[in-house]
Protein backbone atom coordinates (compact mmCIF):
# COMPACT_ATOMS: atom_id res chain seq x y z
CA UNK A 1 0.00 0.00 0.00
CA UNK A 2 2.81 2.39 0.86
CA UNK A 3 4.48 1.69 -2.48
CA UNK A 4 1.22 2.28 -4.33
CA UNK A 5 0.74 5.53 -2.42
CA UNK A 6 4.18 6.71 -3.47
CA UNK A 7 3.34 5.89 -7.09
CA UNK A 8 0.12 7.91 -6.92
CA UNK A 9 2.01 10.80 -5.33
CA UNK A 10 4.66 10.71 -8.05
CA UNK A 11 1.99 10.54 -10.76
CA UNK A 12 0.16 13.49 -9.17
CA UNK A 13 3.24 15.71 -9.35
CA UNK A 14 4.08 14.53 -12.88
CA UNK A 15 0.54 15.04 -14.18
CA UNK A 16 0.83 18.79 -15.03
CA UNK A 17 3.95 18.16 -17.10
CA UNK A 18 2.36 15.14 -18.79
CA UNK A 19 -0.62 17.28 -19.75
CA UNK A 20 1.70 19.93 -21.23
CA UNK A 21 3.65 17.29 -23.18
CA UNK A 22 0.49 15.77 -24.61
CA UNK A 23 -1.12 19.13 -25.43
CA UNK A 24 1.89 20.94 -26.88
CA UNK A 25 4.05 18.13 -28.25
CA UNK A 26 2.26 14.82 -28.78
CA UNK A 27 -0.97 16.18 -30.31
CA UNK A 28 0.86 18.64 -32.66
CA UNK A 29 3.21 15.81 -33.67
CA UNK A 30 0.26 13.56 -34.55
CA UNK A 31 -1.39 16.37 -36.52
CA UNK A 32 1.86 17.07 -38.35
CA UNK A 33 2.21 13.40 -39.26
CA UNK A 34 -1.39 13.39 -40.53
CA UNK A 35 -0.88 16.53 -42.64
CA UNK A 36 2.24 14.95 -44.17
CA UNK A 37 -0.02 12.42 -45.89
CA UNK A 38 -2.31 15.11 -47.34
CA UNK A 39 -1.92 17.54 -50.30
CA UNK A 40 -2.57 20.54 -48.02
CA UNK A 41 -1.45 23.84 -49.62
CA UNK A 42 -2.24 27.48 -48.85
CA UNK A 43 -3.96 26.32 -45.63
CA UNK A 44 -7.04 25.03 -47.49
CA UNK A 45 -7.90 22.89 -44.50
CA UNK A 46 -11.57 22.18 -45.29
CA UNK A 47 -10.88 21.17 -48.88
CA UNK A 48 -7.67 19.18 -48.49
CA UNK A 49 -7.19 17.98 -44.92
CA UNK A 50 -9.30 14.86 -45.51
CA UNK A 51 -7.57 13.96 -48.79
CA UNK A 52 -5.02 11.17 -48.59
CA UNK A 53 -2.07 11.04 -50.98
CA UNK A 54 -0.08 8.32 -49.25
CA UNK A 55 3.68 8.79 -49.23
CA UNK A 56 3.67 11.31 -52.08
CA UNK A 57 5.15 14.11 -49.98
CA UNK A 58 7.88 11.80 -48.67
CA UNK A 59 8.67 10.67 -52.21
CA UNK A 60 9.00 14.31 -53.28
CA UNK A 61 11.27 14.94 -50.32
CA UNK A 62 13.42 11.96 -51.28
CA UNK A 63 13.58 13.16 -54.89
CA UNK A 64 14.72 16.63 -53.78
CA UNK A 65 17.32 15.16 -51.42
CA UNK A 66 18.67 13.14 -54.34
CA UNK A 67 18.54 15.61 -57.24
CA UNK A 68 17.83 19.20 -56.12
CA UNK A 69 21.12 21.16 -55.76
CA UNK A 70 19.49 23.85 -53.62
CA UNK A 71 18.14 21.24 -51.22
CA UNK A 72 21.63 19.75 -51.06
CA UNK A 73 22.84 23.14 -49.83
CA UNK A 74 20.14 23.11 -47.16
CA UNK A 75 21.25 19.69 -45.92
CA UNK A 76 24.92 20.69 -45.95
CA UNK A 77 24.13 23.90 -44.09
CA UNK A 78 22.13 21.97 -41.49
CA UNK A 79 25.03 19.61 -40.85
CA UNK A 80 27.63 22.39 -40.61
CA UNK A 81 25.42 24.69 -38.53
CA UNK A 82 24.41 22.07 -35.97
CA UNK A 83 27.90 20.56 -35.64
CA UNK A 84 29.95 23.70 -35.23
CA UNK A 85 27.40 25.72 -33.28
CA UNK A 86 27.02 22.78 -30.89
CA UNK A 87 30.79 22.77 -30.33
CA UNK A 88 30.75 26.51 -29.68
CA UNK A 89 27.77 26.34 -27.34
CA UNK A 90 29.01 23.41 -25.23
CA UNK A 91 32.78 23.92 -25.15
CA UNK A 92 32.47 27.70 -25.24
CA UNK A 93 29.94 27.66 -22.42
CA UNK A 94 32.16 25.32 -20.38
CA UNK A 95 35.22 27.54 -20.94
CA UNK A 96 33.34 30.70 -19.97
CA UNK A 97 31.95 29.00 -16.87
CA UNK A 98 35.44 27.90 -15.80
CA UNK A 99 36.91 31.36 -16.37
CA UNK A 100 34.13 33.16 -14.52
CA UNK A 101 34.30 30.63 -11.68
CA UNK A 102 38.03 31.09 -11.14
CA UNK A 103 38.00 34.90 -10.95
CA UNK A 104 36.62 37.23 -8.30
CA UNK A 105 32.83 37.00 -7.87
CA UNK A 106 32.16 40.69 -8.53
CA UNK A 107 34.20 40.68 -11.74
CA UNK A 108 32.63 37.34 -12.67
CA UNK A 109 29.13 38.79 -12.35
CA UNK A 110 29.95 41.60 -14.80
CA UNK A 111 31.33 39.15 -17.37
CA UNK A 112 28.36 36.81 -17.05
CA UNK A 113 25.93 39.69 -17.56
CA UNK A 114 27.94 40.79 -20.60
CA UNK A 115 27.67 37.34 -22.17
CA UNK A 116 23.94 37.25 -21.45
CA UNK A 117 23.32 40.41 -23.51
CA UNK A 118 22.92 38.57 -26.86
CA UNK A 119 20.31 36.27 -25.31
CA UNK A 120 18.43 39.17 -23.69
CA UNK A 121 18.52 41.37 -26.81
CA UNK A 122 15.28 41.27 -28.86
CA UNK A 123 15.59 39.25 -32.05
CA UNK A 124 14.92 42.20 -34.40
CA UNK A 125 17.51 44.37 -32.64
CA UNK A 126 20.09 41.57 -32.59
CA UNK A 127 19.48 40.85 -36.28
CA UNK A 128 19.70 44.54 -37.19
CA UNK A 129 23.03 44.78 -35.36
CA UNK A 130 24.57 42.05 -37.52
CA UNK A 131 22.86 43.38 -40.63
CA UNK A 132 24.81 46.62 -40.32
CA UNK A 133 27.95 44.82 -39.18
CA UNK A 134 28.10 42.58 -42.28
CA UNK A 135 26.47 45.09 -44.68
CA UNK A 136 28.01 44.84 -48.13
CA UNK A 137 28.44 48.59 -48.70
CA UNK A 138 31.19 50.88 -47.40
CA UNK A 139 28.85 51.90 -44.55
CA UNK A 140 28.98 48.37 -43.11
CA UNK A 141 30.87 48.18 -39.83
CA UNK A 142 33.20 45.39 -40.92
CA UNK A 143 33.82 46.88 -44.36
CA UNK A 144 34.45 50.34 -42.93
CA UNK A 145 36.92 48.96 -40.40
CA UNK A 146 38.83 46.86 -42.93
CA UNK A 147 38.88 49.64 -45.53
CA UNK A 148 40.44 52.04 -43.05
CA UNK A 149 43.08 49.46 -42.17
CA UNK A 150 43.81 48.86 -45.83
CA UNK A 151 43.02 45.15 -45.56
CA UNK A 152 40.58 45.32 -48.48
CA UNK A 153 40.41 47.66 -51.48
CA UNK A 154 36.63 47.66 -51.98
CA UNK A 155 33.58 46.70 -49.91
CA UNK A 156 32.74 43.03 -49.78
CA UNK A 157 29.40 41.24 -49.50
CA UNK A 158 30.53 38.96 -46.72
CA UNK A 159 27.63 36.56 -46.54
CA UNK A 160 26.45 36.60 -50.17
CA UNK A 161 29.55 37.00 -52.36
CA UNK A 162 29.78 33.86 -54.57
CA UNK A 163 33.57 33.93 -54.25
CA UNK A 164 33.32 33.53 -50.48
CA UNK A 165 30.50 30.97 -50.35
CA UNK A 166 29.70 28.70 -48.68
CA UNK A 167 32.19 29.22 -45.86
CA UNK A 168 31.42 32.89 -45.31
CA UNK A 169 27.69 32.31 -44.86
CA UNK A 170 28.32 29.30 -42.63
CA UNK A 171 30.79 31.26 -40.50
CA UNK A 172 28.29 34.08 -40.00
CA UNK A 173 25.37 31.89 -38.95
CA UNK A 174 27.55 29.84 -36.57
CA UNK A 175 29.06 33.02 -35.10
CA UNK A 176 25.76 34.83 -34.60
CA UNK A 177 23.92 31.84 -33.15
CA UNK A 178 26.93 30.86 -31.07
CA UNK A 179 26.87 34.23 -29.32
CA UNK A 180 23.30 33.54 -28.27
CA UNK A 181 23.68 29.87 -27.35
CA UNK A 182 26.99 29.98 -25.48
CA UNK A 183 25.45 31.84 -22.54
CA UNK A 184 23.07 28.95 -21.82
CA UNK A 185 25.89 26.49 -21.24
CA UNK A 186 27.81 29.10 -19.26
CA UNK A 187 24.94 29.57 -16.77
CA UNK A 188 24.33 25.82 -16.37
CA UNK A 189 28.00 24.97 -15.87
CA UNK A 190 28.69 27.96 -13.60
CA UNK A 191 25.77 26.98 -11.36
CA UNK A 192 27.13 23.43 -11.20
CA UNK A 193 30.60 24.69 -10.28
CA UNK A 194 29.17 26.79 -7.46
CA UNK A 195 27.60 23.65 -5.97
CA UNK A 196 30.95 21.88 -5.74
CA UNK A 197 32.14 22.00 -2.09
CA UNK A 198 34.83 24.62 -1.76
CA UNK A 199 36.70 22.25 0.54
CA UNK A 200 37.65 20.14 -2.49
CA UNK A 201 39.25 23.10 -4.22
CA UNK A 202 40.99 24.28 -1.04
CA UNK A 203 42.32 20.78 -0.30
CA UNK A 204 43.63 20.49 -3.85
CA UNK A 205 45.37 23.85 -3.54
CA UNK A 206 46.92 22.81 -0.24
CA UNK A 207 48.20 19.61 -1.87
CA UNK A 208 49.89 21.71 -4.55
CA UNK A 209 47.47 21.18 -7.43
CA UNK A 210 47.75 23.69 -10.23
CA UNK A 211 44.77 25.42 -11.83
CA UNK A 212 44.77 23.17 -14.90
CA UNK A 213 44.86 20.09 -12.66
CA UNK A 214 41.90 21.37 -10.65
CA UNK A 215 39.99 21.94 -13.88
CA UNK A 216 40.87 18.52 -15.29
CA UNK A 217 40.44 16.37 -12.21
CA UNK A 218 37.81 18.20 -10.15
CA UNK A 219 35.71 20.76 -12.06
CA UNK A 220 35.06 18.95 -15.34
CA UNK A 221 34.43 15.47 -13.85
CA UNK A 222 32.04 16.95 -11.28
CA UNK A 223 29.80 18.45 -13.99
CA UNK A 224 29.64 15.48 -16.36
CA UNK A 225 25.85 15.24 -15.86
CA UNK A 226 25.50 18.85 -16.86
CA UNK A 227 27.72 18.36 -19.91
CA UNK A 228 25.45 15.54 -21.11
CA UNK A 229 22.34 17.62 -20.51
CA UNK A 230 23.64 20.75 -22.26
CA UNK A 231 24.96 18.73 -25.22
CA UNK A 232 21.68 16.92 -25.85
CA UNK A 233 19.58 20.01 -25.19
CA UNK A 234 21.62 22.19 -27.51
CA UNK A 235 21.71 19.49 -30.20
CA UNK A 236 17.93 19.19 -30.30
CA UNK A 237 17.51 22.95 -30.00
CA UNK A 238 19.84 23.67 -32.92
CA UNK A 239 18.13 21.10 -35.13
CA UNK A 240 14.85 23.00 -34.73
CA UNK A 241 16.27 26.53 -34.51
CA UNK A 242 15.39 28.98 -37.27
CA UNK A 243 14.49 32.42 -35.84
CA UNK A 244 17.90 34.10 -36.05
CA UNK A 245 18.59 32.38 -39.37
CA UNK A 246 15.28 33.65 -40.72
CA UNK A 247 16.25 37.25 -39.99
CA UNK A 248 19.73 36.85 -41.48
CA UNK A 249 18.35 35.31 -44.67
CA UNK A 250 15.40 37.68 -45.05
CA UNK A 251 17.65 40.72 -44.69
CA UNK A 252 20.19 39.24 -47.14
CA UNK A 253 22.98 39.12 -44.58
CA UNK A 254 23.75 35.59 -45.79
CA UNK A 255 23.02 33.62 -48.95
CA UNK A 256 19.49 32.21 -49.12
CA UNK A 257 20.47 28.56 -49.45
CA UNK A 258 23.75 28.50 -47.52
CA UNK A 259 22.00 30.27 -44.65
CA UNK A 260 18.96 27.99 -44.56
CA UNK A 261 18.81 24.90 -42.38
CA UNK A 262 16.20 22.17 -42.66
CA UNK A 263 14.17 23.73 -39.83
CA UNK A 264 14.09 27.10 -41.60
CA UNK A 265 13.30 25.35 -44.88
CA UNK A 266 10.26 23.71 -43.27
CA UNK A 267 9.10 27.05 -41.88
CA UNK A 268 9.52 28.89 -45.19
CA UNK A 269 7.85 26.10 -47.16
CA UNK A 270 4.83 26.14 -44.88
CA UNK A 271 4.39 29.89 -44.40
CA UNK A 272 6.32 31.95 -46.96
CA UNK A 273 7.50 30.42 -50.23
CA UNK A 274 5.22 27.86 -51.90
CA UNK A 275 3.02 27.44 -48.80
CA UNK A 276 2.93 23.68 -49.24
CA UNK A 277 1.98 22.52 -45.76
CA UNK A 278 1.80 18.83 -46.70
CA UNK A 279 5.37 18.76 -47.97
CA UNK A 280 6.59 20.89 -45.05
CA UNK A 281 4.91 18.51 -42.59
CA UNK A 282 6.71 15.55 -44.19
CA UNK A 283 10.03 17.34 -43.82
CA UNK A 284 9.14 18.19 -40.21
CA UNK A 285 8.41 14.53 -39.43
CA UNK A 286 11.78 13.53 -40.87
CA UNK A 287 13.40 16.25 -38.78
CA UNK A 288 11.74 14.88 -35.62
CA UNK A 289 12.98 11.38 -36.45
CA UNK A 290 16.51 12.65 -37.07
CA UNK A 291 16.45 14.61 -33.80
CA UNK A 292 15.23 11.60 -31.83
CA UNK A 293 17.88 9.30 -33.28
CA UNK A 294 20.68 11.83 -32.78
CA UNK A 295 19.55 12.49 -29.21
CA UNK A 296 19.60 8.77 -28.37
CA UNK A 297 22.93 8.33 -30.15
CA UNK A 298 24.44 11.23 -28.22
CA UNK A 299 23.26 9.76 -24.91
CA UNK A 300 24.82 6.44 -25.88
CA UNK A 301 28.12 7.99 -26.94
CA UNK A 302 28.31 9.98 -23.70
CA UNK A 303 27.57 6.78 -21.72
CA UNK A 304 24.41 8.06 -20.11
CA UNK A 305 23.26 4.52 -19.23
CA UNK A 306 26.41 3.96 -17.17
CA UNK A 307 25.94 7.27 -15.37
CA UNK A 308 22.45 6.33 -14.15
CA UNK A 309 23.26 2.70 -13.27
CA UNK A 310 23.42 1.89 -9.55
CA UNK A 311 26.91 1.64 -8.04
CA UNK A 312 28.41 -1.84 -7.95
CA UNK A 313 29.90 -1.52 -4.48
CA UNK A 314 28.44 -0.53 -1.14
CA UNK A 315 27.85 3.17 -0.58
Assigned CATH class: Mainly Alpha
CATH superfamily: MetI-like
Treating each run of at least 4 consecutive H or I residues as one helix, how many helices?
15
> What's the alpha carbon Rg, rounded to whole Å?
24 Å
State the secondary-structure class. mainly alpha
Q: Which outline best applies?
A: flat
Q: Could you characterize what this model shows?
A:
- The chain has 315 residues and is mainly α.
- It has a single domain, classed as MetI-like (MetI-like fold, Orthogonal Bundle).
- Helices cover 74% and strands 0% of the residues.
- The protein starts with a helix and ends in a 7-residue tail after the last helix.
- The mean pLDDT is 88.
Short description:
Helices cover 74% and strands 0% of the residues. It has 15 helices and no strands. The chain starts with a helix and ends in a 7-residue tail after the last helix.
